[in-house]
Design brief:
Order of helices and strands: HHHEHHEH
Structural class: mainly alpha
Strand content: 5-15%
Number of strands: 2
Shape: flat
Pathway: Isoprenoid biosynthesis; isopentenyl diphosphate biosynthesis via mevalonate pathway; isopentenyl diphosphate from (R)-mevalonate: step 2/3
EC number: 2.7.4.2
Distance between the termini: 37 Å
Radius of gyration: 16 Å
Helix content: 40-55%
Subcellular location: Cytoplasm, Cytosol
Pfam families: P-mevalo_kinase (PF04275)
Strand order of the largest sheet: 1-2
GO molecular function: kinase activity
Number of helices: 6
Length: 117
C-alpha cells in the first residue's frame, strides 16, 4: 500500500489532496494526516492564505508512556518524519501529557477557527 501511494505521489503530488476535497465545499477543512511537504504545498497553493498548518508534538518519553515503540523502517520513513524539518507551521500543539496545557492550546486554536467563519 505504501509503495502504491508513493507511486501515485511521484506521478502527481496532489493526487490524494484533491481526492479529499473533490466535490465538497466546507468553510473549514481539518486535514489531520498530511505527512509530506508536498501535501502542505498543495493546500497552500490551492487555498493560499486560508491554509493554516498545525503540528502536534510530543516528547519521545510521553509517546513511550502511551505505548509507542520505535520501529526501524517504519518510524524513520518519509511517511512518518517527512515534516520533521518543515519549519513553517502556523501552530504547534504540545502534547507532552499536561492536559491543562493541551486544553489551553486547543481552545486558542478553536477560537482562531471561529474567528475565520
Amino acid at each position: 500500500m505504501i509503495r502504491w501511494g508513493e507511486e501515485k505521489r511521484q506521478a502527481d503530488p496532489g493526487f490524494f489532496c484533491r481526492k479529499i476535497v473533490e466535490g465538497v465545499s466546507q468553510p473549514v477543512w481539518l486535514v489531520s494526516d498530511t505527512r509530506r511537504v508536498s501535501d502542505i504545498q498543495w493546500f497552500q497553493e490551492t487555498y493560499g492564505a486560508m491554509t493554516q498548518t498545525i503540528r502536534v508534538v510530543a516528547l519521545e518519553q510521553s509517546r513511550q508512556q502511551r505505548g509507542w515503540v520505535f520501529t526501524p523502517g517504519v518510524d524513520d520513513a518519509e511517511s512518518e518524519c517527512g515534516l520533521d524539518n518543515f519549519g513553517g507551521f502556523d501552530w504547534v500543539i504540545e502534547n507532552h501529557g499536561d492536559e491543562q496545557r493541551l486544553e489551553e492550546q486547543l481552545e486558542n486554536l478553536i477560537e482562531f477557527i471561529h474567528s475565520r467563519l
